[in-house]
Amino acid sequence: MDQLQKQILWLFSVPIYAIIIPLEILLSNFNHRKFYSWKETFVNIYLNLLNSGIDIILRLFIGLTILNFFFQYHLSINWNPIIYWIILLFGEDLLFWLEHFVDHSSRLFWAVHVTHHSSPEYNLSTGFRSSVFMPVYKYLYFIPLMLLNFRPMDVVFMYSFTQIYGILVHTQAIKKLPRWVEYIFVTPSHHRVHHASNVPYLDKNMGMVFIFWDRLFGTFQEELPDETPHYGITKPIEKPYHPIHIVTHEWKEIGKDMRKATSIKDKIKYLIQPPGWSHDGSTKTTKELQAQLHK
User: Fold this and answer.
1) Helices 264-272 & 245-260, crossing angle to 10 degrees?
2) CA 241-246-247 angle, 5° bins
3) 7 C-beta neighbours (distance < 10 Å), count
4) Rounded CA gap, 192 and 222, in Å?
5) Helices (DSSP H) in 1-138: which residue ranges?
6) Residues 155, 71: contact at Cβ < 8 Å?
7) C-alpha to C-alpha distance for 100 and 208, rounded to whole angstroms
8) Counting CB atoms within 10 angstroms of each CB, which of 28, 37, 145, 189 has the fewest?
9) Which pLDDT score, from 0 to 100, does residue 1 have?
């Protein structure tokens, strides 16, 4: 990442830490809403530091190695500079939607992503509650961009830039934005739905910047006036402040379920099927729970 790109990221990210988060804390306490607690905020920071450490190591030694390997086989496309960055934004955001959809659709990847959803609070610091081990595989999703002649460091920059936007939508302070904004972009209202554990809201609104991917692929859900979001996951964590258990709890649950299965096929299904799948029907997937609502 060149110096200009680093300065751009610094310019946009510093106000979040220095101004916007403290302002949200002050306003929420002033209005007696208390979006923040010390324990949950500390866990958010802890998980972000873990993720950042792993990401730095893997980006240097694995991520960029993989991306550079595939970049050497790129198509000979002479991008116009403006078109280059526009297509990169849309392409990266589409691939993020795909990654996010897979994270919610396979329990193997949900075990990684669940930490981001585990807080019963919802505020700007929740945006930093990272899926710790996502850097292990996230760079693989960028391979198509390499083949289309997008430079590896530009892709990493764009992903980092859009993540800043993704952090800003983690707020309860903003209700609804103008209709055209709500139709095109991911807004706080859309992302509140995504973080809610209400059955109608489960596995909805996967986009980072643009919401029209969800509208296009059937994963969109508007925030309903009579369905207040309840944040967190459907099954609360027993030890939510334990530094190891908060990261590994879903892996432990997968292990328990696999031991209950009687066939190898069912054991494997506990890894690849959606969260909630069970060999004996004792638990339900999101689709099954939502289907019951419409009976």
Assistant:
1) 150
2) 150
3) 10
4) 10
5) 3-15, 21-30, 38-58, 64-71, 81-105, 107-117
6) no
7) 9
8) 37
9) 56
20-27, Cβ contacts within 8 angstroms, sequence gap of 24 or more:
20/124, 20/168, 21/123, 21/124, 21/125, 24/123, 24/124, 24/171, 24/173, 25/123, 27/173
As a whole number of angstroms, the distance between CA 17 and CA 36 comes to 15
> One digit per residue, pLDDT tens: the chain, 295 residues?
565 665 666 656 766 766 788 878 787 767 667 788 889 989 999 999 999 899 888 887 888 899 999 999 999 999 999 999 999 999 999 999 999 999 999 999 999 999 999 999 999 999 989 999 999 999 999 999 999 999 999 999 999 999 999 999 999 989 999 999 999 999 999 999 999 999 999 999 999 999 999 999 999 999 999 999 999 999 989 999 999 999 999 999 999 999 999 999 999 999 999 999 999 999 999 999 999 987 7
SS3 174: coil
Q: Could you tell me what percentage of the chain is helix, strand and coil, using 3-state DSSP and rounding each to the nearest 5?
A: 65, 0, 35
Name residue, tokens 């324990």: 39
Total number of residues shown for the chain: 295
Q: Give every CB contact of residue 43 below 8 A, 6+ residues apart in sequence.
A: 119, 129, 240, 241, 246
